[in-house]
Amino acid sequence: MDATLDTVLVALSPAVTDENADRLLDAAMRVAGPAKATVVLTYVVSGEEFLDAAERLGHEGADRDDASEVLADHETIQRLGATLDDHGIGYEVRGAVGKVAEEVVAAAGEVDADQVFVSGRPRSPTGKAVFGSTAQDIILDSPCPVTYVAAQSD
């Protein structure tokens, strides 16, 4: 069994607040920094959110194949990337368009992630049953261990 830690994936979407994105990154850096692992900032948006972001960020005419390039310019990714730079931790950006859980699990497999960091918000048992849980789907389907970082409640 290979015990090295080379790649850590941080799952992000518009549903993750700036405060919770910071908490996720802090947890990931505590693991990635000492291991000298690469952090993969994975930002997943819906089709409509992608079109809005592409236009707002000056990428008119971009399509799904351009998601990483477009979302690398997103404010959240820029801020988190600057934090990683400040700490001397290498990173890359993967943008995706689609359902968050599916795209995060796919990205984890594609980059051969050793660990995934995900956040979520507290829900009632009924809310979980009716609406499902993106974090739960990632935990159940991920090809590697997942660390769940509890979201700060508002």
UniProtKB/TrEMBL annotation:
<feature type="domain" description="UspA">
    <location>
        <begin position="7"/>
        <end position="149"/>
    </location>
</feature>
<dbReference type="Pfam" id="PF00582">
    <property type="entry name" value="Usp"/>
</dbReference>
<dbReference type="InterPro" id="IPR006016">
    <property type="entry name" value="UspA"/>
</dbReference>
<dbReference type="InterPro" id="IPR014729">
    <property type="entry name" value="Rossmann-like_a/b/a_fold"/>
</dbReference>
<protein>
    <submittedName>
        <fullName>Nucleotide-binding universal stress UspA family protein</fullName>
    </submittedName>
</protein>
<comment type="similarity">
    <text>Belongs to the universal stress protein A family.</text>
</comment>
